[in-house]
Amino acid sequence: MFIISNTPLQNSTAEGEFWLLSDDSARTIRQPDGSLLLFEGNLYPDSPVTTADLAQQFAAGRPAQRLAEAKGQYSGAHLDPAGGTVHAFNDHLGVHDVFIRQSGDSFALGNDLGALLRALPTTADELDETAVEDYFALEFALGGRTFARSVRRASPAALITAEARGGAPRAERYWQWQHEPAVEGFDDAVDAMYELLLGATRRIAALGSAPERWCLGLSGGLDSRVVGALARTAGLRPHGYFFGERESDAGSVTGQLATALGIEVRFPGRNREFPAHFATSLDRFPMANLEWCKYVTGRDRLPDYDALLSGRRAELFLRGTAQYFRSGFPERATPEDFYDAFAGTSADEGHRKPVCARLEAELRDVPGSSLRKRRHLGQLRMHSSWKDCALFRDFAGRPHYSPFDDLDVISYGLRLPPEWQRGARFHRALLERHFPHVAESRIRRDEVGNNDNKPLERWLSGNEDFLRAVRECVPDPAEPVPGERSLGSYEETARRISEGRHSRNEIHYFFRRLTVAGFRKAYL
């Protein structure tokens, strides 16, 4: 973690006209001229750029080209106390975040939203209602907004420059997607994607952890089959775990999948404990949906591990989602069409018009087809929301990796014709061709009733820990839950949920509202 500000921070170190706050996760390289590079994350072993290269290029005033050539997942900052200038940056895909806080002539740049808000406290009137509207409609906030009005999330591939004596930080992108022509030849493309994914997995495996010190969430779905098979091919022996119900269809398939992969899978079965993680989630990932705490339950009972593996981002490029392939989606889509495609069950209809106006502004400069615009929104959702899901995060601070987060994989995936992705055709062909031992022809998964593996209502039924966590999470448990659903107070709604008197959609809606209320109490 690092935060650099032009105003004093508690427990910070003065560096010229700046104040620096950091922990051991951020490596520091100090140059002979007194400047220093803070770097958190990893450059891949085959990256043509090292952290020493970056430090030298920042000192020479030419960082953009070397950042564009770097390969890895990282965030960092370069501080020049003598020149009164600071730069902050993140990786091409925004796997690591950078946040900008601006208030008058005061600013702060950091890579941890919670730490930034704790270092520079805000007030109740700082809640960004626009970000909240977007969050309920789309699951993420447009324009880099956060729930705090003075804080923005930088884009992927961001290079931000700020000067100690004030003025708004200036953000630019050191790299942009280059949309190349669609690939041809289905079978050749399947083979090419296999090689790219295997190369990405080997890069991850080379980061240093022993083969058996990885954790892999297994669901029996296509993504976990591909990642599990890639991990084994790359020489890893991850600990498999399934967070849902052992007796569900998905649990049975997961057991078969683990056997086929030659790894052990554990079924911790501790899902009723997930409210115990609310406070940690708000502390580490302040805008992450508190419902996602269900995914982390039981990991503390696994053998010790160093990092997580998953198939994050696969749905954007290999098998598509309903947002991309919904039947009848017009080629010349309007903002309302995109709203209908992306709006979730938590959307309040009264917010449709302003959210559509912001969607129109967001998509105005995205060239090309509706498919490209839908993919752009999918990328935004991943950058701003989904990556904070506990499927892809570790509350103990361990890193997470996915072969689908690899730049070469995504660049090639963007060239796959959309019709190849319908019905997960390309995804299934990849399995049948290169990993037949875990393909659906060998291990079938019945999609009927598949959601039985995560019976949220049952986990919350009679759950006193849930009621206690809600009371501790919100500013006032007697406060009415806002929105169009007329749920009553937080206390009353939680009690009715525990008594089985709310539908699953209403429970999802409540957790979104609870997340915002938790953020208000923790930070505003």
TrEMBL record:
Gene3D superfamilies: Glutamine Phosphoribosylpyrophosphate, subunit 1, domain 1, HUPs. InterPro entries: ASN_synthetase/amidase, Ntn_hydrolases_N, Rossmann-like_a/b/a_fold. GO terms for biological process: asparagine biosynthetic process. GO terms for cellular component: cytosol. One of its GO terms (molecular function) is asparagine synthase (glutamine-hydrolyzing) activity. Keywords: Amino-acid biosynthesis, Asparagine biosynthesis. Signal peptide: none annotated. Its EC number is 6.3.5.4. The keyword Amino-acid biosynthesis applies. It is an enzyme of class 6 (ligase). Pathway: Amino-acid biosynthesis; L-asparagine biosynthesis; L-asparagine from L-aspartate (L-Gln route): step 1/1. PANTHER family: ASPARAGINE SYNTHETASE (PTHR43284:SF1), ASPARAGINE SYNTHETASE (GLUTAMINE-HYDROLYZING) (PTHR43284). This is asparagine synthase (glutamine-hydrolyzing). The lineage of its organism: Bacteria, Bacillati, Actinomycetota, Actinomycetes, Kitasatosporales.
